[in-house]
Amino acid sequence: MLFIHEEHGLSVSKACKTVCMSRSVFAYRPTLRDDTPVMTALLGLAKRYPRYGFAKCFAVLRREGHVWNHKRVCRIYRQLWLHMRRKGRRRLPSRAPVHLEAQTAVNACWSVDFMSDALMHGQRFRTFNVLDDFSREVLAVEVDTSLPAARVIRVLDRIAAWRGYPAKMRMDNGPEFVSVQLAGWAEQHGVDLEFIQPGKPTQNSYVERFNRTFRDEVLNFYFFSRLSEVRVIVDAWEQEYNEKRPHESLGNLTPEEFALKHAKDSSFELH
Fold first, then answer.
1. What is the C-alpha radius of gyration for the chain, rounded to an integer number of angstroms?
2. What distance in Å separates the CA atoms of residue 253 and residue 258, rounded to the nearest whole number?
3. Backbone phi and psi for residue 194, each to the nearest 5 degrees, phi listed first
4. SS3 letters for 136-148?
5. What is the pLDDT along the chain (271 residues), one digit of tens a residue?
6. CA nearest to 44, candidates 55, 57, 56, 33
7. 3 state SS for the chain
8. Residues 6+ apart with CB under 8 A from 231
9. Are strands 124-132 and 192-195 parallel, antiparallel or unpaired?
10. Separation CA 58–CA 74 (nearest Å)
11. Which of 13, 133, 138, 254 could form a disulfide with 109 if both were Cys (CB 3.0 to 4.6 A apart)?
Protein backbone atom coordinates (compact mmCIF):
# COMPACT_ATOMS: atom_id res chain seq x y z
CA MET A 1 0.00 0.00 0.00
CA LEU A 2 2.79 2.38 0.96
CA PHE A 3 4.66 1.33 -2.20
CA ILE A 4 1.68 2.27 -4.46
CA HIS A 5 1.21 5.56 -2.66
CA GLU A 6 4.88 6.64 -2.88
CA GLU A 7 6.05 5.13 -6.22
CA HIS A 8 3.05 6.07 -8.34
CA GLY A 9 2.29 9.38 -6.71
CA LEU A 10 -1.31 8.47 -5.98
CA SER A 11 -3.22 10.10 -3.20
CA VAL A 12 -3.99 8.03 -0.13
CA SER A 13 -7.68 7.90 -1.09
CA LYS A 14 -6.95 6.55 -4.63
CA ALA A 15 -4.29 4.15 -3.39
CA CYS A 16 -6.72 2.69 -0.84
CA LYS A 17 -9.42 2.36 -3.51
CA THR A 18 -6.94 0.57 -5.81
CA VAL A 19 -6.22 -2.18 -3.28
CA CYS A 20 -9.78 -2.21 -1.90
CA MET A 21 -8.70 -1.05 1.53
CA SER A 22 -10.52 1.25 3.92
CA ARG A 23 -8.73 4.49 4.79
CA SER A 24 -9.38 3.79 8.46
CA VAL A 25 -7.43 0.54 8.13
CA PHE A 26 -4.53 2.35 6.46
CA ALA A 27 -4.49 5.01 9.18
CA TYR A 28 -4.83 2.54 12.04
CA ARG A 29 -1.92 2.54 14.51
CA PRO A 30 -2.17 -0.06 17.29
CA THR A 31 -1.78 1.30 20.80
CA LEU A 32 0.23 -0.77 23.23
CA ARG A 33 -1.78 -1.66 26.33
CA ASP A 34 -0.28 -1.91 29.77
CA ASP A 35 -1.06 -5.39 31.09
CA THR A 36 0.58 -4.75 34.47
CA PRO A 37 -2.73 -4.33 36.38
CA VAL A 38 -4.04 -7.63 34.98
CA MET A 39 -0.78 -9.41 35.84
CA THR A 40 -0.79 -8.02 39.37
CA ALA A 41 -4.39 -9.08 39.93
CA LEU A 42 -3.81 -12.61 38.57
CA LEU A 43 -0.62 -13.12 40.58
CA GLY A 44 -2.44 -11.95 43.69
CA LEU A 45 -5.23 -14.46 43.08
CA ALA A 46 -2.74 -17.25 42.38
CA LYS A 47 -1.04 -16.51 45.69
CA ARG A 48 -4.30 -16.30 47.63
CA TYR A 49 -6.06 -19.21 45.88
CA PRO A 50 -3.26 -21.47 44.57
CA ARG A 51 -5.62 -24.29 43.54
CA TYR A 52 -8.04 -22.16 41.50
CA GLY A 53 -8.07 -22.61 37.73
CA PHE A 54 -8.63 -19.91 35.11
CA ALA A 55 -12.45 -20.04 35.16
CA LYS A 56 -12.55 -19.58 38.93
CA CYS A 57 -9.97 -16.78 38.87
CA PHE A 58 -11.85 -14.97 36.11
CA ALA A 59 -15.10 -15.24 38.09
CA VAL A 60 -13.37 -13.76 41.15
CA LEU A 61 -12.01 -10.87 39.05
CA ARG A 62 -15.53 -10.16 37.80
CA ARG A 63 -16.85 -10.21 41.37
CA GLU A 64 -14.16 -7.72 42.37
CA GLY A 65 -15.41 -5.30 39.69
CA HIS A 66 -12.77 -5.75 36.96
CA VAL A 67 -14.12 -5.61 33.40
CA TRP A 68 -11.12 -6.94 31.48
CA ASN A 69 -11.95 -9.01 28.39
CA HIS A 70 -12.03 -12.80 28.82
CA LYS A 71 -9.49 -13.37 26.00
CA ARG A 72 -7.09 -10.77 27.35
CA VAL A 73 -7.13 -12.26 30.84
CA CYS A 74 -6.71 -15.79 29.43
CA ARG A 75 -3.74 -14.70 27.30
CA ILE A 76 -1.97 -13.10 30.27
CA TYR A 77 -2.90 -16.06 32.49
CA ARG A 78 -1.07 -18.39 30.09
CA GLN A 79 1.87 -16.02 29.64
CA LEU A 80 2.38 -16.16 33.40
CA TRP A 81 2.27 -19.99 33.26
CA LEU A 82 -0.49 -20.09 35.84
CA HIS A 83 -2.43 -22.80 34.04
CA MET A 84 -1.95 -26.17 35.74
CA ARG A 85 -2.09 -29.40 33.81
CA ARG A 86 -3.97 -32.19 35.51
CA LYS A 87 -3.94 -35.65 34.00
CA GLY A 88 -7.45 -36.95 34.39
CA ARG A 89 -8.27 -40.59 34.82
CA ARG A 90 -10.07 -42.35 32.04
CA ARG A 91 -13.58 -43.03 33.29
CA LEU A 92 -15.73 -45.81 31.91
CA PRO A 93 -19.31 -44.74 31.16
CA SER A 94 -21.92 -46.05 33.54
CA ARG A 95 -24.11 -48.69 31.92
CA ALA A 96 -27.07 -47.88 34.15
CA PRO A 97 -26.66 -44.25 35.20
CA VAL A 98 -28.80 -43.06 38.10
CA HIS A 99 -29.74 -39.40 37.77
CA LEU A 100 -29.79 -37.41 40.99
CA GLU A 101 -33.04 -35.64 41.72
CA ALA A 102 -32.45 -31.88 41.48
CA GLN A 103 -33.50 -30.18 44.70
CA THR A 104 -35.64 -27.04 44.62
CA ALA A 105 -35.31 -25.75 48.18
CA VAL A 106 -32.84 -25.36 51.00
CA ASN A 107 -32.91 -28.26 53.52
CA ALA A 108 -34.67 -30.53 51.03
CA CYS A 109 -31.69 -32.90 51.11
CA TRP A 110 -28.34 -33.04 52.87
CA SER A 111 -25.49 -35.19 51.57
CA VAL A 112 -23.03 -36.58 54.13
CA ASP A 113 -19.77 -38.48 53.85
CA PHE A 114 -16.51 -39.26 55.65
CA MET A 115 -12.95 -38.54 54.58
CA SER A 116 -9.62 -39.44 56.17
CA ASP A 117 -6.08 -38.08 56.25
CA ALA A 118 -3.00 -38.11 58.50
CA LEU A 119 -0.93 -35.66 60.53
CA MET A 120 2.78 -35.22 59.89
CA HIS A 121 3.74 -37.79 62.54
CA GLY A 122 1.37 -40.39 61.09
CA GLN A 123 -1.70 -40.12 63.33
CA ARG A 124 -4.87 -40.65 61.31
CA PHE A 125 -7.90 -38.39 61.54
CA ARG A 126 -11.31 -38.27 59.90
CA THR A 127 -13.66 -35.56 58.72
CA PHE A 128 -17.45 -35.72 58.64
CA ASN A 129 -18.72 -33.53 55.79
CA VAL A 130 -22.31 -32.25 55.53
CA LEU A 131 -23.50 -30.46 52.37
CA ASP A 132 -26.83 -28.94 51.33
CA ASP A 133 -27.58 -30.31 47.85
CA PHE A 134 -29.58 -27.27 46.71
CA SER A 135 -27.37 -24.35 47.75
CA ARG A 136 -24.07 -26.32 47.93
CA GLU A 137 -23.47 -24.78 51.36
CA VAL A 138 -21.00 -26.58 53.62
CA LEU A 139 -22.99 -27.09 56.79
CA ALA A 140 -20.22 -28.78 58.77
CA VAL A 141 -16.79 -30.33 58.49
CA GLU A 142 -16.21 -32.11 61.79
CA VAL A 143 -12.60 -33.14 62.46
CA ASP A 144 -11.41 -35.75 64.98
CA THR A 145 -9.56 -39.03 65.30
CA SER A 146 -12.83 -40.89 65.88
CA LEU A 147 -16.34 -39.99 64.74
CA PRO A 148 -18.83 -42.62 65.97
CA ALA A 149 -22.57 -42.52 65.35
CA ALA A 150 -23.26 -40.59 68.59
CA ARG A 151 -20.83 -37.85 67.49
CA VAL A 152 -22.45 -37.73 64.04
CA ILE A 153 -25.86 -37.19 65.65
CA ARG A 154 -24.49 -34.36 67.81
CA VAL A 155 -23.13 -32.63 64.71
CA LEU A 156 -26.45 -32.99 62.88
CA ASP A 157 -28.38 -31.64 65.88
CA ARG A 158 -25.98 -28.70 66.09
CA ILE A 159 -26.67 -27.83 62.45
CA ALA A 160 -30.43 -28.27 62.87
CA ALA A 161 -30.42 -25.91 65.88
CA TRP A 162 -29.82 -22.92 63.58
CA ARG A 163 -31.01 -24.31 60.25
CA GLY A 164 -33.76 -26.84 60.88
CA TYR A 165 -33.86 -30.54 60.04
CA PRO A 166 -33.70 -31.71 56.39
CA ALA A 167 -36.47 -33.59 54.62
CA LYS A 168 -34.00 -36.35 53.73
CA MET A 169 -30.32 -37.19 54.01
CA ARG A 170 -28.26 -39.05 51.38
CA MET A 171 -25.32 -41.25 52.46
CA ASP A 172 -23.37 -44.42 51.77
CA ASN A 173 -23.57 -47.64 53.77
CA GLY A 174 -20.86 -46.91 56.34
CA PRO A 175 -21.22 -48.42 59.83
CA GLU A 176 -21.98 -45.02 61.40
CA PHE A 177 -24.83 -44.43 58.95
CA VAL A 178 -26.52 -47.84 59.20
CA SER A 179 -26.45 -47.75 63.01
CA VAL A 180 -29.60 -48.10 65.12
CA GLN A 181 -28.79 -44.75 66.78
CA LEU A 182 -28.96 -42.78 63.53
CA ALA A 183 -32.10 -44.63 62.43
CA GLY A 184 -33.79 -43.68 65.72
CA TRP A 185 -32.68 -40.06 65.35
CA ALA A 186 -34.07 -39.90 61.80
CA GLU A 187 -37.42 -41.36 62.88
CA GLN A 188 -37.65 -38.95 65.80
CA HIS A 189 -37.10 -35.87 63.61
CA GLY A 190 -38.90 -37.04 60.47
CA VAL A 191 -35.78 -37.32 58.31
CA ASP A 192 -35.79 -39.82 55.46
CA LEU A 193 -32.48 -41.68 55.17
CA GLU A 194 -31.55 -42.42 51.55
CA PHE A 195 -28.74 -44.96 51.13
CA ILE A 196 -26.84 -45.25 47.86
CA GLN A 197 -26.02 -48.61 46.31
CA PRO A 198 -22.77 -50.18 47.56
CA GLY A 199 -19.85 -49.27 45.31
CA LYS A 200 -21.80 -46.47 43.55
CA PRO A 201 -20.34 -43.18 44.89
CA THR A 202 -21.71 -41.34 41.83
CA GLN A 203 -25.16 -41.66 43.38
CA ASN A 204 -23.92 -39.24 46.03
CA SER A 205 -22.11 -36.99 43.57
CA TYR A 206 -22.84 -33.62 45.23
CA VAL A 207 -20.79 -34.42 48.31
CA GLU A 208 -18.26 -36.45 46.29
CA ARG A 209 -17.59 -33.37 44.13
CA PHE A 210 -17.18 -31.31 47.28
CA ASN A 211 -14.81 -33.94 48.70
CA ARG A 212 -12.54 -33.58 45.67
CA THR A 213 -12.34 -29.81 46.13
CA PHE A 214 -11.77 -30.21 49.88
CA ARG A 215 -9.04 -32.79 49.27
CA ASP A 216 -7.35 -30.68 46.58
CA GLU A 217 -7.44 -27.31 48.37
CA VAL A 218 -7.00 -28.36 52.01
CA LEU A 219 -6.00 -31.93 52.84
CA ASN A 220 -3.46 -32.35 50.03
CA PHE A 221 -2.26 -28.74 50.19
CA TYR A 222 -1.22 -28.48 53.85
CA PHE A 223 0.99 -30.47 56.20
CA PHE A 224 -0.76 -30.67 59.56
CA SER A 225 1.10 -31.14 62.84
CA ARG A 226 -1.85 -31.03 65.29
CA LEU A 227 -5.60 -31.57 65.16
CA SER A 228 -6.16 -28.02 66.42
CA GLU A 229 -4.28 -26.75 63.37
CA VAL A 230 -6.50 -28.81 61.08
CA ARG A 231 -9.64 -27.36 62.69
CA VAL A 232 -8.45 -23.76 62.37
CA ILE A 233 -7.56 -24.14 58.67
CA VAL A 234 -10.75 -26.07 57.88
CA ASP A 235 -12.98 -23.50 59.63
CA ALA A 236 -11.37 -20.63 57.70
CA TRP A 237 -11.64 -22.52 54.40
CA GLU A 238 -15.27 -23.44 55.09
CA GLN A 239 -16.17 -19.78 55.61
CA GLU A 240 -14.30 -18.86 52.40
CA TYR A 241 -16.12 -21.63 50.51
CA ASN A 242 -19.58 -20.51 51.61
CA GLU A 243 -19.17 -16.73 51.47
CA LYS A 244 -16.55 -15.88 48.82
CA ARG A 245 -15.92 -18.80 46.47
CA PRO A 246 -18.01 -18.52 43.27
CA HIS A 247 -19.60 -21.72 41.93
CA GLU A 248 -20.14 -22.23 38.22
CA SER A 249 -23.14 -24.51 38.91
CA LEU A 250 -24.76 -21.63 40.82
CA GLY A 251 -24.19 -19.02 38.12
CA ASN A 252 -20.91 -17.91 39.75
CA LEU A 253 -22.72 -16.97 42.95
CA THR A 254 -21.42 -18.13 46.31
CA PRO A 255 -23.54 -20.73 48.16
CA GLU A 256 -24.58 -18.07 50.68
CA GLU A 257 -25.61 -15.62 47.92
CA PHE A 258 -27.52 -18.35 46.08
CA ALA A 259 -29.45 -19.33 49.23
CA LEU A 260 -30.32 -15.68 49.97
CA LYS A 261 -31.40 -15.07 46.37
CA HIS A 262 -33.66 -18.13 46.47
CA ALA A 263 -35.17 -17.00 49.80
CA LYS A 264 -35.92 -13.53 48.35
CA ASP A 265 -37.44 -14.99 45.17
CA SER A 266 -39.60 -17.37 47.22
CA SER A 267 -40.87 -14.60 49.51
CA PHE A 268 -41.64 -12.43 46.45
CA GLU A 269 -43.70 -15.22 44.87
CA LEU A 270 -45.64 -15.74 48.11
CA HIS A 271 -46.59 -12.07 48.22
1. 27
2. 6
3. -110, 115
4. CCEEEEEEECCCC
5. 445 555 556 777 777 777 788 878 877 777 777 889 999 999 999 888 888 889 999 999 999 999 999 999 999 999 888 876 565 566 555 555 556 677 888 999 999 999 999 999 899 999 999 999 999 999 999 999 999 999 999 999 999 999 999 999 999 999 999 999 999 999 999 999 999 998 888 899 999 999 999 999 999 999 999 999 999 999 999 999 999 999 998 999 999 999 999 888 766 554 4
6. 57
7. CHHHHHHCCCCHHHHHHHCCCCHHHHHCCCCCCCCHHHHHHHHHHHHHCCCCCHHHHHHHHHHCCCCCCHHHHHHHHHHCCCCCCCCCCCCCCCCCCCCCCCCCCCCCEEEEEEEEEECCCCCEEEEEEEEECCCCCEEEEEEECCCCHHHHHHHHHHHHHHHCCCCEEEECCCCCCCCHHHHHHHHHHCCEEEECCCCCHHHHHHHHHHHHHHHHHHHCCCCCCCHHHHHHHHHHHHHHHHHCCCEHHHCCECHHHHHHHHHHHHHHHHC
8. 143
9. unpaired
10. 8
11. 133
Under a CB-based contact definition with an 8 Å cutoff, are residues 40 and 71 in contact? no
110 forms beta bridges with 132, 169
- Say if residues 189 and 160 touch (Cβ distance below 8 Å): yes
> Considering the entire predicted model, what is its pTM?
0.76
Tell me how far apart the alpha carbons of residues 115 and 147 are, in angstroms, rounded to a whole number: 11
